[in-house]
Structure formats: structure tokens, C-alpha cells
Amino acid sequence: xxxxxxxxxxxxxxxxxxxxxxxxxxxxxxxxxxxxxxxxxxxxxxxxxxxxxxxxxxxxxxxxxxxxxxxxxxxxxxxxxxxxxxxxxxxxxxxxxxxxxxxxxxxxxxxxxxxxxxxxxxxxxxxxxxxxxxxxxxxxxxxxxxxxxxxxxxxxxxxxxxxxxxxxxxxxxxxxxxxxxxxxxxxxxxxxxxxxxxxxxxxxxxxxxxxxxxxxxxxxxxxxxxxxxxxxxxxxxxxxxxxxxxxxxxxxxxxxxxxxxxxxxxxxxxxxxxxxxxxxxxxxxxxxxxxxxxxxxxxxxxxxxxxxxxxxxxxxxxxxxxxxxxxxxxxxxxxxxxxxxxxxxxxxxxxxxxxxxxxxxxxxxxxxxxxxxxxxxxxxxxxxxxxxxxxxxxxxxxxxxxxxxxxxxxxxxxxxxxxxxxxxxx
Length: 426
Ligand code: HMG
Prior knowledge:
Helices cover about 50% and strands about 20% of the residues. With about 425 residues, the chain is of the alpha+beta class. A four-stranded antiparallel sheet has the order 3-8-10-9. A four-stranded antiparallel sheet has the order 5-6-4-7. The protein has a two-stranded antiparallel sheet with strand order 1-2. The longest helix has 24 residues. 3-hydroxy-3-methylglutaryl-coenzyme A binds next to α4, α10, α13 and α14.
């Protein structure tokens, strides 16, 4: 990949030129991006109900993401200022430390059937385990195309949940290949329902996919040299120690954990949206995972190796992301996203997304424990004000540096300074 430094300072045309020169997009998708081609009404109308229009959000790209030695230009869709800047900042630093390494622990989706009013629970549990092979066969017969693609139902587990009403829960594990698999799972589960009722003598309450995808866990890790945290050695050490404390604080306090994890999802949601995936599913699974110990905790861990002077970050999440199915093939901008990412597999995309979450958390924590979050925000806000005040592209950098030199600033000050700058340039 070519040099992306200062990408954010370029005009849209210049940015597109950099992308063109990097030869990442084929002609069709480059033109699509160039012409800002978005979802048309007819397609939108076929995707959901009661459509009266389409709704746009900014589509950005973040260079310098190196994951498992592969370099990515990451598409991000977000409405929040400074998220893309923070991701770019983190990606650049982490690239200089060797990038992210990831482990995809497994990639199976889970669905469940809850049964109740079973006359003899221990005999029912025994029956289900004994007939496991038949049940898996039945599930696969209900969705043969996934079996043809090399996936299918692979395991079945049971659990008895005792309470006001006892539930016997049957969990089905399915290899959904490149799909997220909601339809596959739900079809299979509904096919098993009747048989299970027959064998157990109970009633089925529901049969549905679970978004708590504990069999689709992905871990992303990175190691950052202290020297990249600050040019000043003592300051770098102080930031490293404070980042370790920040991750401990987010494990100890649910108020902090919520914000800490929101920051992680600033990045994750933006990529999940750009890839046309179901971000509610990803969020639901991850927040449940954050509460797996019984208390809601921060999802990242930061530790410091004081001998080799490296800050080590780690994030593990359920990441049942898809590259096929759902609305992925329908939205033209999503097609451009996949092209920008060089058509990743579902495992590669999952690894990248968890890495983006870790990067986003790194940037937020570093800002929080050093300059504070407002400094970066103020810089970006100054840029928005400069544009609102009517500054031309070439006038923006000077106006921003004059504004941020002030203790506080607003639109009228931006207009005043702009007038002054123009007078001096006459
Ligand atoms: P900085 O040190 O002033 O950046 O940080 P810089 O000007 O030295 O630039 C360094 C690199 O950052 C650039 O490299 C870019 O890659 C990137 P270059 O291209 O020059 O070679 N960069 C930008 N990229 C795009 N647009 C920009 C831009 N500026 C720098 N305008 C920065 C400035 C904002 C990056 C930093 O202060 C930061 O990361 N802040 C954190 C911002 C953040 O996390 N925002 C999310 C919203 S706040 C929130 O919701 C989450 C939170 O509550 C979560 C939590 O509590 O944990 C914070």
C-alpha cells in the first residue's frame, strides 16, 4: 500500500486518486465510489417494509490497518466525529509495532429450542443424547444447501434450566460457512421442534438462533512499543501505566465499562455497517460476553511488559460476521466495501473487525489518560466551525490552528478570524 500520511487533509478528489493509484478497487467499484452511487429506492423497498426513501451516513476509509500481516484500507460508516481520526491514529501506531495478530477460535453459530412441561426430564435428556445423530441429520435435511457448501449442523447439546418453570434447552451448533446463518439456524431449529416434542412429550416454547455466539470467538492482540506512546521516555511510561490502570478500572466499574465498551463499538459498528452486516446482532452478543462473569466489564485488556517496554492489548469477542447473505449483495456501497477489503473471507473480516475494536479502544484510552478527550474533539470541532464559517479548503488549516490557539471558540470567532486572514492575504 502506498503512503497514506495526511490522507485526511486531502480533498475528496485527491483521496479518490490515492485509492485509484493504490489499485485497490476494480473499475466498476471505483466508479461507484467516485459517483457516490448509493442504494436506490427500488432495492431499498425490497429490503424492508413501508419504505419512503433512503438515509445516508458518511462513508470513510481508514488506511494502515495491518492484521495478520495483511494490509487493509478499512471502510467505516459513522456519524460521530473523531471516530475515523482515532482509528487512523491507532492503526498507524500499531502498524509501526508490527500490526495486529488474531486467533479465530471457532466459527459455529448456536440456536436453541426451549422445551417445557416434560413429564420425565431425565428420560427426555437421555433420549435426545441417544438420538443426537438423527437430530443432526434432520437439521441438515432441512437446509441441504449449507451442507453442499461444506457446512451444516455439527453438534447438539442439552441443558436443564431449573426455575419457576423448568426448561430443557436444546442447543444446536451449525457451521454456516460465509453466512451469519440466522435463516439457516431458524429453519433447522423449526424442523427439529416437532420431533423433540414427540420424543420428550413436552411442549416447545420457541426455536431461534442465539446472538450470544460463544462458538464464534475471535481474539485480536497487539504490542505497542512505549516509544510510540510519547517521544518523552518518562511520559511514555506514565501513559503505559495509566492505560493498564484504565483497563483495570473498566473491569471494576460497570459505569466505566459501559463507556469503555461504547468506545470499542465506535469502530466495530462502523465497519459492521459498512459491510452490510447486522450490527444489533454483533452488539448483543458482545455485551452479553462482557457480562459473562456475572458483572458487566470492559472488554479489552491492556498489560505492560516493563522488560521489553511494550504495551500489550487484547480483545476477545463473539464475531459472527458474514460475507454472504442478508442485504450484503444488495447495497452497492457494501459491494465497494468488500472490494476495498479485497474480498475477505468471513474469518478474515471477523479478525479485522475485532482488531478495529482494539485500535479504537487504544486511541480513546490514550487520549483519556493523556491530553483528555476534549483536545482531539476541539481540533475536529474547529475544523467543522471553519467550514461553517465559509472557509475554503486551503483556508481551513490556518483557521483551525488560529482557533485551537484560543481558550475557547465559536462560530462568530471563526468568522472574525477568517475575515482577518482574508484581509492579510489581499
Ligand atoms: P493527534 O495526536 O492530534 O493526531 O490525535 P495527529 O494530528 O498527530 O495525527 C496523527 C495521525 O492521526 C494522522 O496521521 C492520522 O492518521 C490520524 P497522518 O495522516 O498525519 O500521517 N488523524 C486523523 N485522521 C483523520 N482525520 C483527522 C485526523 N487527525 C489525526 N482529523 C486524535 C488526534 C483525534 C486522533 C486523538 O486525539 C484521538 O485519538 N482521540 C480519541 C478520539 C475518540 O476516541 N473519539 C471517539 C468519540 S469519543 C467516544 O465516544 C468514546 C470514549 O468515550 C470511549 C472511552 O471513554 O473509552 C472516549
